[in-house]
Specification:
The complex is a heterodimer of chains A (696) and B (181).
Chain A (H helix, E strand, L loop, with lengths): L1 H13 L2 H7 L16 H6 L18 E6 H7 L4 H5 L5 E7 L2 E6 L10 E5 L2 E2 L20 E8 L3 H4 L6 E7 L7 E9 L2 E12 L5 E11 L3 E2 L10 E12 L5 E21 L6 E22 L4 E16 L3 E16 L5 E17 L13 E3 L3 E18 L3 E12 L3 E15 L2 E12 L8 E8 L12 E7 L4 E15 L2 E20 L3 E3 L2 H6 L5 E28 L2 E16 L3 E3 L9 E12 L2 E10 L15 E13 L2 E8 L5 E2 L12 E4 L1 E9 L1
Chain B lengths: L1 H18 L9 H13 L3 E2 L11 E6 L3 H6 L6 E2 L2 E7 L5 H4 L4 E4 L22 E4 L11 E6 L2 E7 H6 L3 E2 L1 H6 L1 E3 L1
Parallel strand pairs in B: 2-4, 2-5, 5-6, 6-7, 8-10
Antiparallel strand pairs in B: 1-9, 3-4, 7-8
The chains are: A mainly beta (696), B alpha/beta (181).
Chain lengths: 696, 181
């Protein structure tokens, strides 16, 4: 009860006017919200929390942040998370097939892109197998997402390795905000059926909960070379829950979990060392996984608080010709925040992550002479990661100038200790203007494939356009990759021009060092020179490439977003991205971060119009410029314009009916290709579908 | 595997332990702050005696799905100056439902606000204090708008509309608000 007394004492001290004398004598019952016991001035001084390591509202953040709100999500008509991310400037989303995307921030996109960190409610989604994200299994009831914070530029000082070019933070709604029932259903040209059910309730006074179930069954896209329907069918079901509880006035506890399983098909491009060498066939990945996360936040005093979070994550993916992967992750994080020293806002944190995996070859549904794209040695491994971070916001001039210093020290089993410092300056000369600048160092540490992995990239058939020899050529890669680093310089200007018109501009310059490369070695005749000489029909040429870190690179870019609420019923949101990437490779080396996989320009314009209060009309236009070279062997992907449209009508309270058209400008178009050449070139079709959303 | 399993077991049991406690309301922090702000600022507003007798309860109403509505429910039964606050969650904004409310919070994004504040909430001398976190609420026919500014929640008062409604915001409230009109 001691704390209660000091709390009361502090209240009286800061008290002003008559009202406080009346207002602060409220009982501090444990079921009451402590915020109700503060006086008005104190309430106005409370800071808004987000899941980010330190709560900040976006307009005053010293970073290039774009927020996709739940309203944006609902009105977009998008049915997957990657499709939502297209709204954010600086983010490149290239759809490879109907269940595969390359998603990157500030360039260097690919199916196996590795410089972006993605989190959902504080749980890391990137897989340590290749440091990328399996987007086909990242999903939830989209109506339960509160917002998606898209942070371009390094976030490593807080989030650690792999937050090299950006962090995507998906934050779901508190269960208090999802009370009652929700049924969502959709079906259309591409979607054989999507259904979600969510229900949330209270247990008397003991908190809020929700549970959900979701399932979908979608069609494949179109194979470019034949015009036939692809094998990239996609079917998945998932269930999950979230509980948000306040055991006392100072504590907030969240427990949440999900389980899913499904099948992700692929029009695969497989290789073997005997005729026909390249095999076009359909494969099916069998995926499943689950996670359980707990988070406890405690306000120790008005200035100090801490958060403890732990989660367990299990994933399983049987991926024909790639690997049969089983992975378990345990992660524990602790952070402490203090504003005790005046002018300082300090956060310190520590984290531990344990990763255990088993990677074996997968021949599910394919002949045994098919080459595996990736093999791992040893097949099973266990890696741990320790980290410490500290960040301090130092107010140099009240309300105007804030200096942020931070760094993260991280120890991994591949390269040892890595440091990732960051310095930022935030200047807010007025309520409506923000300027910021930042310099940071971030690293990408090796993933499983970079250490003990080997890759069979492709087989060039004998006497073909890229192989004049009478023997097939197998291109392989193996070796050890070391840490890649970036030094990033950023600056930004956020301005509210009128109460209804604002823009956000960011520019940056990135210097990359030690980027991953393959170094061409001397071709060797396999399995042995003896076989090559006497029985050449059983022989092949191996062209080895040695994994190494022999490229440097630079990127320069500009991102602009503007928001104009013309009238209460009409809003425009505009985004514009300019990006130039230049790579410099050592002789005979080629980098896997290809400059040709990045569009120079991307433009987006969204219109949200309510002709009547029960009717939504949304139009979304996009332009993505040409991709000259996604990977050796992939023809240039032309620039494209696309348009989405959504019409929604709410005939009665809680009920919404919508008609959505996606990619309306073309019957089908190509967006991206897998740099591993493991997928046939696919085209994405125009899609039209209906949605029903009923809240009860 | 064993370390993974045991760590997972440790997390699980920690969660179980935490779950064994008793809980209270849990709207997101931002929405709890907004709810507390609403409850605090209404104490600075004077109602005409004809609409709010000196010891009658202060009727706080809320409409729309939002954590603010959830969090504001905690105001029920709490003392507000020399009265007691009563909380009501409304099912509609019909004249019948809002009758008797002294304070009305409307959640951001509520359909009824898509084309500005509906006329039923703008009657002269009605004594109904309208509050919302819908963007530019106080500039579009509402009395008090809650905004996100800096790291904090701020509020705007449309003084003319409040006075038209028969209400008198206190000087110390105006000092902390952005006054428009």
């Amino acid at each position: 009860m001691n704390r209660g007394h000091t709390h009361q004492a502090r209240l009286s001290r800061i008290a002003f006017g008559i009202i406080v004398a009346l207002g602060s004598h409220l009982a501090l019952g444990s079921e009451d919200d402590p915020f109700f016991d503060l006086d008005l001035k104190e309430v106005l001084n409370l800071e808004i929390t987000s899941v980010s390591k330190k709560p900040q509202t976006v307009s005053r953040a010293a970073a290039a942040v774009f927020v996709i709100t739940s309203d944006d999500i609902r009105r977009s008509g998008a049915s997957t998370i990657p499709d939502l991310l297209r709204m954010a400037p600086g983010i490149q989303v290239g759809q490879i097939s109907n269940n595969t995307w390359g998603v990157s921030s500030r360039g260097m996109d690919g199916r196996f892109t590795n410089k972006l960190l993605v989190l959902i409610d504080g749980r890391s989604l990137y897989t340590p197998t290749f440091s990328g994200v399996y987007w086909d299994v990242q999903d939830t009831v989209l109506a339960d997402i509160e917002r998606i914070e898209v942070i371009r530029g390094p976030g490593a000082a807080l989030w650690g390795a792999n937050a090299v070019n950006g962090v995507i933070n998906i934050i779901t709604k508190s269960s208090a905000a999802t009370q009652g029932g929700l049924i969502e259903a959709a079906a259309g040209s591409n979607d054989r059926g999507t259904g979600s059910v969510r229900y949330g309730g209270k247990v008397g006074d003991i908190g809020h909960w929700r549970i959900y179930a979701k399932g979908f069954d979608r069609n494949g896209s179109i194979v470019e070379s034949t015009g036939a329907r692809g094998d990239d069918k996609w079917q998945q079901q998932r269930v999950g829950f979230r509980t948000d509880l306040t055991p006392s006035a100072r504590d907030a506890v969240t427990v949440q979990g999900d389980y899913y399983d499904g099948r992700s098909g692929e029009s695969a491009f497989l290789n073997s060392l005997s005729a026909p060498y390249n095999i076009l066939t359909g494969t099916t990945q069998t995926v499943s996984g689950g996670n359980l996360l707990g988070r406890w936040q405690r306000d120790i005093s008005a200035t100090d608080s801490f958060t403890v979070q732990g989660y367990f994550d299990h994933t399983k993916r049987d991926w024909p010709a790639h690997s049969n992967e089983v992975r378990n992750t345990v992660d524990i994080d602790f952070q402490y925040r203090s504003k005790r020293l005046s002018g300082h806002d300090l956060v310190i944190g520590a984290g531990y992550r344990l990763n255990q995996d088993e990677m074996t070859p997968s021949f599910t549904g394919i002949p045994s002479n098919i080459l595996q794209f990736s093999t791992f040695s040893p097949a099973s491994s266990e890696n741990s990661l320790y980290s410490l971070f500290i960040q301090d916001d130092i107010t140099l001039m009240q309300k105007e100038l804030v200096l942020t210093l931070g760094t993260k020290l991280e120890h991994n089993d591949y390269t040892g200790l890595e440091h990732q410092p960051n310095v930022k300056l935030l200047w807010t000369p007025s309520e409506t203007t923000t300027f910021w600048g930042s310099a940071a160092r971030a690293v990408r540490t090796p993933s499983r494939i970079d250490s003990g992995g080997s890759v069979n990239q492709t087989v060039l058939p004998p006497l073909s356009s890229r192989n004049p020899l009478a023997l097939p050529v197998l291109i392989t890669a193996q070796g050890r990759v070391d840490t890649e680093t970036v030094i990033a310089y950023e600056a930004g200007w956020k301005q509210r021009i009128t109460p209804t018109l604002s823009f956000d501009l960011a520019v940056f310059h990135n210097n990359y060092k030690d980027l991953r490369t393959g170094l061409f070695g001397t071709p060797v005749c396999q399995p042995s020179p003896f076989v090559c000489f006497f029985t050449p029909s059983q022989a092949y040429i191996q062209q080895p490439t040695l994994a190494s870190n022999q490229a440097t690179g630079q990127s320069n870019g500009m991102e602009l977003s503007a928001d104009w609420r013309v009238r209460p019923d009409l809003r425009f949101q505009f985004s514009w991205t300019e990006l130039r990437v230049r790579m410099k490779e050592e002789p005979h080396a080629f980098t896997t971060d290809r400059e040709g996989s990045t569009p120079k320009h991307q433009l987006g314009l969204r219109m949200a119009w309510n002709p009547r209060s029960d009717t939504d009309v949304d139009i979304w236009l996009r332009h993505v410029s040409k991709l000259p070279l996604v990977s050796e062997g992939v023809p240039p992907i032309p620039a494209y314009n696309e348009a989405d449209m959504r019409l929604a009508w709410r005939p009665s309270k809680g009920l919404e009916l919508a008609l959505v058209g996606r990619n309306l400008l073309h019957k089908r178009h190509k967006e991206f290709a897998s740099e591993l050449l493991d997928v046939q070139q696919m085209q994405i079709e125009r899609a039209v579908f209906g949605q029903l959303n009923w809240k009860f | 595997m064993p370390p993974v399993r045991s760590a997972a077991a440790a997390i699980l049991s920690a969660i179980m332990l935490m779950s064994a406690h008793a809980w209270a309301q849990t709207a997101p922090r931002e929405e709890r702050i907004k709810a507390a702000l609403i409850f605090k600022l209404v104490k600075f507003v004077e109602w005409p005696a004809s609409l709010l007798a000196s010891n009658a309860p202060l009727q706080i109403c809320a409409y729309g799905n939002s954590g603010v509505t959830e969090a504001l429910a905690a105001a029920d039964g709490k003392p507000a100056r020399d009265r007691t606050a009563k909380f009501h969650k409304l099912d509609s904004l019909s004249a019948n439902d809002i009758k008797g409310c002294h304070v009305l919070f409307i959640a951001a994004g509520t359909r009824e606000l898509a084309n500005g504040v509906p006329p039923v909430l703008r009657n002269r001398g009605s004594g109904l204090l309208t509050i919302s976190d819908n963007p530019d609420f106080a500039r579009r026919g509402g009395m008090i708008g809650l905004n996100q500014g800096e790291n904090k929640i701020t509020f705007e008062i449309n003084l003319r509309l409040a006075r038209d409604g028969g209400l008198e915001p206190g000087a110390s409230l105006l000092e902390l608000a952005t006054v428009i009109d």
